[in-house]
Structure formats: structure tokens, C-alpha cells
Specification:
209 residues, alpha+beta, nine-stranded antiparallel beta sheet
Length: 209
């Protein structure tokens, strides 16, 4: 398939300096809400990019489970590839893409684990099957077959009782040092507004598209 000629103009809106809030969170909250209102499935999904000890990058989709003034939260297996990457290099980048709205948000910063109490609280909120799945799956490891997972789930189901969060599963917080908002515009002259931390406070600036 030849995709070289596939193109379209972007006309999802515009970003004006006079409309910008002093900090990025209100704008992010607005865009996320508008993405859900537009019916975008899994609007809180984001690309998480990490770097391993040898400097090789890798990316995957995870779900943002909370966004507050400190940053972006997600949960995963600490022994997964991303967990191993973050243990050696606690820096990462996030990317949200809402194609229907011609919008992208990028965030970069340091990663830290959330407290055990926070991880426990979130784990308890998950559906029963998702709790078991977190235990059954040796994430990122080679497994012999799909049946292996089915057998593990059946074993865990048979045990019954309350499901406790495994020690190798929990949350991360990305504390952003920069957040960029990208709004598609005609003729590839897109709006790009970057917030970055300078002397302990957020400043905003326009980037060339």
C-alpha cells in the first residue's frame, strides 16, 4: 500500500496565548474532558516511553489513572520491561493522542513509585478478574502458551478469598518538568505551546511547528 499521498488538513481549533491558564493542569483537564465528551475510547490511554540501561528506548500504551498537580499516575508490574527500565533510569515521556480532535499532549519528567498505601487502595478498586490477572501474568516474560495464563487464573480462582496486591505490582507517578500541547492547524502551521518548570514555577512558550 502506498501511503505517501495520504494527507489531510487539520482544523480542530487553535491555541491562543491569551487563553492559556498559568499552569498546565487546567488545560490538560479541559482537553481530557473534551476527549471523553467526543466519545474517544480510552481517552486516558497514553504512550509511555522509557530507556533501558543500554540506552535503548521502548514505548507502550498504559492508562493514566489519576492526574493531579503533582503529575500523572499509572499502575503496572514492577518486574515488567518498563519497570526494569525505570529502576535504572527514572525518567520517562508520556504522549496522549486524540486524533479526532487533532490534539496531542506530551509530558516529560522524573518517575517515582507511589506509596504502598496508594497502590493498595487502587488495587482494591480493580475488578476481581483484573486483580487476579495482575498476579497470574509474569508481565514481559516468555510464556509457553495462552493456556499457561488460563491455568494460572483457574488456580487463583480456586484459592478464593480476598486478593492481596502482590509486592511486585503498584503505581508510578511521573512528575513533569515540561508539558507540550499540540493543536493541529491548516497548512501544517500547528499550534505548539510548551509549559516548563523554570525557577520552581511554570512558564509557557510557543514553539514553531
Amino acid at each position: 500500500m502506498d501511503i505517501s499521498g495520504i494527507r489531510r488538513d487539520y482544523d480542530g481549533g487553535e491555541l491562543k496565548e491569551e487563553d492559556l491558564p498559568p499552569t498546565p493542569k487546567p488545560l490538560f483537564d479541559q482537553w481530557l474532558e473534551e476527549a471523553f465528551d467526543a466519545g474517544i475510547r480510552d481517552a486516558n490511554s497514553m504512550v509511555l516511553s522509557t530507556v533501558d540501561p543500554l540506552g535503548s528506548p521502548s514505548s507502550r500504551i498504559v492508562l493514566a489513572k489519576e492526574v493531579d498537580r503533582k503529575g500523572f499516575y499509572f499502575y503496572t508490574n514492577y518486574d515488567s520491561r518498563k519497570g526494569i527500565d525505570l529502576a535504572s533510569n527514572p525518567r520517562a515521556a508520556l504522549l496522549f493522542h486524540w486524533a479526532q480532535l487533532d490534539r496531542v499532549v506530551r509530558a516529560e519528567g522524573r518517575i517515582e513509585r507511589v506509596t504502598d498505601a496508594e497502590s493498595d487502595a487502587y488495587f482494591k478498586s480493580r475488578p476481581h478478574g483484573s486483580q487476579l490477572g495482575a498476579i497470574a501474568s509474569p508481565q514481559s516474560r516468555v510464556i509457553p502458551s495462552r493456556q499457561y495464563l488460563s491455568d494460572r487464573m483457574a488456580e487463583l480462582e480456586a484459592q478464593g478469598g480476598e486478593v492481596k496486591r502482590p509486592n511486585n505490582w503498584g503505581g508510578y507517578l511521573l512528575r513533569p518538568r515540561s508539558i507540550e500541547f499540540w493543536q493541529g492547524r491548516p497548512d501544517r502551521l500547528h499550534d505548539r505551546i510548551r509549559y516548563r518548570v523554570h525557577d520552581g514555577a511554570w512558564v509557557s512558550e510557543r514553539l514553531a511547528p
